[in-house]
Structure prediction request, 678 residues.
Amino acid sequence: MTASTAEARPQPARISGARLLVRCLAELGVDTVFGYPGGAIMPIYDALPGSGIRHILTRHEQGAALAADGYARVTRKAGVCMATSGPGATNLVTGLANSMLDSVPVVAITGQVPTAMMGTDAFQEVDVFGITLPIVKHSYIIRDTADIPEVLAEAFHLATEGRPGPVLIDVPKDVTVAEIEASVRMPRIAPTSTAVPAAIGDAVEAMAGASRPLFYMGGGIEIAGAEDEVRALIERTGFPSVCTLKGLGAVPTDHPDFLGMLGMHGMRAANLAVQECDLLIVTGARFDDRATGKLDEFAPHARVIHMDGDPAEIGKLRKADVALPGDLISNLNALKRQADFDSSARIAAWKARCLANRREHAWRYDAPGEFIYAPALLKAMSERSENDLTIACDVGQHQMWVAQHCRFRRPRTHLTSGGLGTMGYGLPAGIGAKLAHPEETVVVVSGDGSIMMNIQELATLKRYDIDVRIVLLDNSSLGMVRQWQELFFAGNYSEIDLSDNPDFAALARVFGLQARTIERRDQVDEALDWLLNEPGPSLLHVRIDPTANVWPLVPPGKNNADMIQGETR
Amino acid sequence: MSNHFEIRLKSSEGALLRTLGLIQRRGFAIAEMALRADGEGQLLRLAVSGQGRCPEILARQVARLHDVITIERIEHEPWQATVADCARALANLVPSSDPWRLASNEMRG
Prediction:
């Protein structure tokens, strides 16, 4: 072949692995990526500008992973985060574990050293595939550029289908640098079919015959987007309901038949109802130890109908008398279609008892003392506007106060690290939520311990002018640990003192936020008005009683009826 | 008491590690294990004991791994050697010039 004939033949267009990967992300509908660049992932960052995908540069990879988690929770789409090899990848680990424990769809893309250098202890080489095996739903190492479209299509499918979870894609640098023909296309993956199990009839029969039925709702409802169906079934049956920490918002927390959150820091009426019910209709929940207390004594008189999208959860900790694995929406719809019984007379006394308990054990906000009472502040904040806030929590006492006292009428407006309990979750999760839904008012509720875990993300708020409002409840200690040391370690306070905290309002101002500090009850109303009405990222620093505790509490190893109540401060 | 499983795995990267890791994390000890090629994937036979843990739940947890094609509980039976297994075993008896292989055989002997 002569040179002239070679020139005359049109060459197929070629594309680098990095550009192909970014093109695939765009084709999969990804509009936002949270990440942090570095050596091994530089080809992908080179391909990002002009792709139409918005990249949010967090100030730590953990912030990127948790922001992707927050983005995913409010949208039910896969959140995407990226990091380079080595420390970049290991910094994602906590975020991935967080998403795994709470079943959140996240796709993490990590750069890796070139294939030929893998296994040689190269600079910034770490086996992130191996490190993350227990904390991802699935993972890949892409060893051939031509595999990129198929792996990405499958990764996004796996992250979101069935029980969602994080998926890791490790991409060696040579794979992103190599070029292949640009005509390669992504395969389409069909959604998994959803069959309704045969036991629906048994479930309906159990519901029709129950005298003390109760819905026990978990985070699986939000994950499946099944809130309309569960609300319809609750209206149809008239049964009372309780929910887990992650189930808050599945039905409005001010619904007349809703008894509150159950579990360690749940409402007494909710825990009593569980202990007394004769039928527990478990809907997208998994008998988590924080919800059940002593498992052997949980709902001791109840038959159990267990619905869950993940068949492996059914019977894991509590035998199901009627098992309904599979698609929650299909099961709830099938139950509603067949639930043509009227048990209002049979359950009248039970409902009356449940509602009397709710009235008798309602939260009180008349705490003595001079300090700002955090539960009252949070209640006032959440009820300040007709539209619910989206509240992203950190982990600790404030997390429980939010769950107990804030109003949630819509699903996916309460972002909390339920499974892993990740201090530092709130701020990056709030960033992800606000970027996904800019029309929502997003408030991060944090503590003086938790905020410092990812304080660097205040710079992300400022850089992108992300309008997140922060309420920082400052008790100058690691409050939940302090409370447990007070109650269960004879007051031996070990390493919980944070009385040398920085001036948080000044710190926020240094990052470019508006900020205020309050410490008296008469300052609360005006400060909340300022926080919720003044546009732009801001921080309200609230000094509270360093000895305040979360009540009630089910002590470890006790059943949920053995709640203890201490002094409110 | 041991429970016996036969698990068909895809040939995907990390399939074996992911499966074994899950079994151990869920509280089961692996007492016996055999692995062989099976079409384009692998066939894994295991004897595991869980000290009160439920093997049916474990099977469901394994089944939801993307790498797992099927998992079945089986009766305990010795691994059925195939012609290919015998050929591999015979090949191991043939003296080799590979010093690592010699050392390996000597250690076994």
In short: The longest helix of chain B spans residues 15-25.
